[in-house]
Amino acid sequence: MLNEILIVLLMLGTLTAFAPPVRMMESDERRIFPACYLLAQSEAIASSLPRDFASAQGVIHFNENGNVRKAGTLHFSNGRKIVIELGGGRLVLR
Q1: What's the pTM value of the predicted model, to 2 decimals?
Q2: Which of 10, 44, 45, 85 could bond 62 through an S-S bridge, CB–CB 3.0 to 4.6 Å?
Q3: Domain boundaries, given as residue ranges, for the chain
């Protein structure tokens, strides 16, 4: 009886370990983009030099104060988008 239970638990553990995840993860690009964006903006502020942030969606230009030079909307492959506002560069996720 105990051996049978251990075999069943071993089989369940093996199936669970090699089974693909059921839940779909959000696209990495949309999760990582805000962190990379803030890093580039922080570097522009810290160095007091203009900085360009290039991503797969486009290029964002920061001036020496970390302000965005041109507002815009970036579209991601999963249909979501991020709106970048002029000035302080606030990100609006949609």
Answers
A1: 0.65
A2: 44
A3: 28-93
